[in-house]
Amino acid sequence: MPQMGESIAEGTLSKWLKKVGDEVKRDEPIFEISTDKVDAEIPAPSAGVIAEILVKEGETVAVETVVARMETEKGASIGAPAKEAETAATATPEVKIAEPAKIAEPAVKVAASPSPNGSSFEERIRTKSSPLVRKMAAEHGFDLQGLQGSGIAGRVTKKDLMGFINGGIPDSARVSMHAPTGVGGEHYPLPEPWPGDRVETMSKMRALISDHMVASRRTSAHVTSFMEVDLTRIVRIRARRRAEFEAATGEKLTYMPFIIASVVQGLKAFPILNSSVAGKNIIYRRSINIGVAVALDWGLIVPVIKNAENLSLAGITRALNDLASRARVKKLSPEEVQDATFTITNHGVFGSLIATPIISQPQVAILGVGAIEKRPKILPGQDGEDTIAIRTCAYFSISFDHRVIDGAVADQFLAYVRKTLEEYPETGV
């Protein structure tokens, strides 16, 4: 099981792409994993034959756990009994990964021996939770080391922590009793399946999205504001410059890079929307890292364009196209879905006009882009009379955290983005 990020202690083997007896080429994907950061396909360390599968689909195991063994010499025995395979283990590469690009290192069995600083393996794993879990624990006054979770070696997961927050735990496990008002919540009985119903366990990704959305609604004071944006100028600029742009860059030019570039300018003008809340402190982020939600057949993922403030329209387009295409084939690294400071979700791609997106923690705002379509609009004519014209428009929404952003500021930001798009310079392409 690979170490897909510094804070990740375990992963779920979600799908085997090969079975015992299959021949594989070096770097050919052999299984898929799901962690609390990213889904990914894991390549073979070398060419060979799958000799033994040790971890079943759906099992969650600690990083460095051996999940399979391969025979690298053609003609070697396949499907040998467990005892024979154990004897031959020293000559059979074990499929496991210390880093995504280094997967052929010798297997290392996880031992629960004390570390030099006196902490046991279980204690280190338990406190080495994801950044979101650590942040939630600090906000609600929980000491992770004092909690027993359902993860490997008692590691506390987001689901565990939400349960502690909702149901409460003994005072001995608390650091502080100053949890936010209303955290307790009500407990409703779980629905029971009726005859003929189909019951499916949530995928790892769906469960994580569920936990993240609930935690965000509990954390931020959500408010959403809307404005209609006239994108006719952007449509015309794109039509005139598209062929030239794509010939020069090799990249397909869509409307989203224009929107991202305008949002970046808006965040520079209103830096509070590019911040995070840490207790009673506000952290103003220097970097502008734009997360762009990408809908997948199996869920949702948000790859991040890092340091977008330093990129031209061509640079934004290149980064966006690359991240989106690799997200759809599970080729993103954990670093590429982390550290967003502001998120954009294009729900309009499916025809939706208006939405109220949930903020992605620990950000304080998210922009929603509705369907781009032609509409009749009343415009002032040259002779002073009003005229009806066909314009290409979309509704934009901004969901913001009212703890630190006032409605007037959010509306000023959205109006700034609208003005930037409606007056976008053709020289900016």
Features:
alpha+beta; OB fold (Dihydrolipoamide Acetyltransferase, E2P); Chloramphenicol Acetyltransferase; seven-stranded mixed beta sheet; 19 strands; globular
Question: Count of helical segments?
Answer: 9
The chain-level structural class is alpha+beta
Task: State the fourth-level CATH superfamily of the largest domain.
Answer: Chloramphenicol acetyltransferase-like domain
Query: Mind telling me which CATH architecture of the largest domain this is?
Result: 2-Layer Sandwich
Write down the domain tally: 3
Largest sheet: 7 strands, mixed
**CATH class value of the largest domain:** Alpha Beta
The third-level CATH topology of the largest domain is Chloramphenicol Acetyltransferase
Strand content: 15-25%
- Overall pLDDT score: 81
Low-confidence stretches: 75-92, 97-106, 108-122, 168-186
Task: Give an overview of the whole structure.
This protein is 26% helix and 22% strand. It is of the alpha+beta class. The protein has 3 domains: 10-95, RNA polymerase II/Efflux pump adaptor protein, barrel-sandwich hybrid domain (OB fold (Dihydrolipoamide Acetyltransferase, E2P), Beta Barrel); 113-177 and 204-219, no CATH class; 223-428, 2-Layer Sandwich (Chloramphenicol Acetyltransferase). The strands form 5 sheets. Strands 9, 12, 15, 16, 17, 18 and 19 form a 7-stranded mixed β-sheet that branches. It has a 4-stranded antiparallel β-sheet with strand order 4-3-1-6, with no helix packed on it. It has a 4-stranded antiparallel β-sheet with strand order 2-5-7-8, with no helix packed on it. α7 (256-269) packs across α8 (313-327) and α7 (256-269) crosses α9 (407-422). The longest helix has 18 residues, at 232-249. Mean pLDDT is 81; it is low at 75-92, 97-106, 108-122 and 168-186.
